[in-house]
C-alpha cells in the first residue's frame, strides 16, 4: 500500500512544500491531491481556512530502482560512470561507460554478471507483478565476448573433429553456454551439452553418434 500523509499550509504551494519536507523526497516522487482549498473568512479575519492536501509517495519502477542502485554502488566506489538506458528484446539494458571500467567486468565478465544479478534483486524488490529483467553492459563488452565465444566454439569443434575426443570447456554462465550451443547447433557431426552444477556448469563438445 502506498504511503501518504495529509498536510496543511497557507496555500496549496505552501502545503506541497511542507509535504516534501516531511517526506524528504523530490516532487517527482510524490502525487498531490487537494483536499481543501484555502479561503479567507469574514473580512479576512474570522474563519480563515488553510489549504489541505494529501501527498502520496509514488512507487519507483524497477528501472528507477536499478538506476538508483547502480548510482549508489558507483558513488561508494568513487567512480564516475555514465549510464544509457534503453529497452531491448530481453529487458532493460543499462550501457555503462567511464574510466577504468575493466574492474567492473572482471575475468570473463564475472564481476559484471554479479553486479547484474544484484541489480536485478534491487530492481524487483517488492515487485511481485511488475518485474523487469535488467541487463548490464560495459562499453559493448557482452557483444565482444559473444563474438569471442563463437570463434572459440568453431576452434573447439575443429579440435574435436581432428582428435576424435571430447573437449570440456571452463565453467560458464547460462547465457555464455547458450552462445556455444547455438554456434554449433547446425554442425551435423558435433554435439554439445552441459554438465555439472551451477556455478561450475560446463559445456562439453563431442563427436555426434560416436562409436
From TrEMBL:
<dbReference type="InterPro" id="IPR036867">
    <property type="entry name" value="R3H_dom_sf"/>
</dbReference>
<dbReference type="InterPro" id="IPR038247">
    <property type="entry name" value="Jag_N_dom_sf"/>
</dbReference>
<dbReference type="GO" id="GO:0005737">
    <property type="term" value="C:cytoplasm"/>
</dbReference>
<protein>
    <recommendedName>
        <fullName>RNA-binding protein KhpB</fullName>
    </recommendedName>
</protein>
<comment type="subunit">
    <text>Forms a complex with KhpA.</text>
</comment>
<keyword id="KW-0961">Cell wall biogenesis/degradation</keyword>
<dbReference type="InterPro" id="IPR015946">
    <property type="entry name" value="KH_dom-like_a/b"/>
</dbReference>
<dbReference type="InterPro" id="IPR039247">
    <property type="entry name" value="KhpB"/>
</dbReference>
<keyword id="KW-0143">Chaperone</keyword>
<comment type="function">
    <text>A probable RNA chaperone. Forms a complex with KhpA which binds to cellular RNA and controls its expression. Plays a role in peptidoglycan (PG) homeostasis and cell length regulation.</text>
</comment>
<dbReference type="InterPro" id="IPR038008">
    <property type="entry name" value="Jag_KH"/>
</dbReference>
<keyword id="KW-0694">RNA-binding</keyword>
<dbReference type="GO" id="GO:0008360">
    <property type="term" value="P:regulation of cell shape"/>
</dbReference>
<dbReference type="Pfam" id="PF14804">
    <property type="entry name" value="Jag_N"/>
</dbReference>
<comment type="similarity">
    <text>Belongs to the KhpB RNA-binding protein family.</text>
</comment>
<dbReference type="GO" id="GO:0003723">
    <property type="term" value="F:RNA binding"/>
</dbReference>
<dbReference type="Pfam" id="PF01424">
    <property type="entry name" value="R3H"/>
</dbReference>
<dbReference type="GO" id="GO:0009252">
    <property type="term" value="P:peptidoglycan biosynthetic process"/>
</dbReference>
<feature type="region of interest" description="Jag_N domain">
    <location>
        <begin position="6"/>
        <end position="56"/>
    </location>
</feature>
<keyword id="KW-0963">Cytoplasm</keyword>
<feature type="domain" description="R3H">
    <location>
        <begin position="143"/>
        <end position="209"/>
    </location>
</feature>
<dbReference type="InterPro" id="IPR032782">
    <property type="entry name" value="KhpB_N"/>
</dbReference>
<dbReference type="InterPro" id="IPR001374">
    <property type="entry name" value="R3H_dom"/>
</dbReference>
<dbReference type="Pfam" id="PF13083">
    <property type="entry name" value="KH_KhpA-B"/>
</dbReference>
<keyword id="KW-0133">Cell shape</keyword>
<dbReference type="InterPro" id="IPR034079">
    <property type="entry name" value="R3H_KhpB"/>
</dbReference>
<dbReference type="GO" id="GO:0071555">
    <property type="term" value="P:cell wall organization"/>
</dbReference>
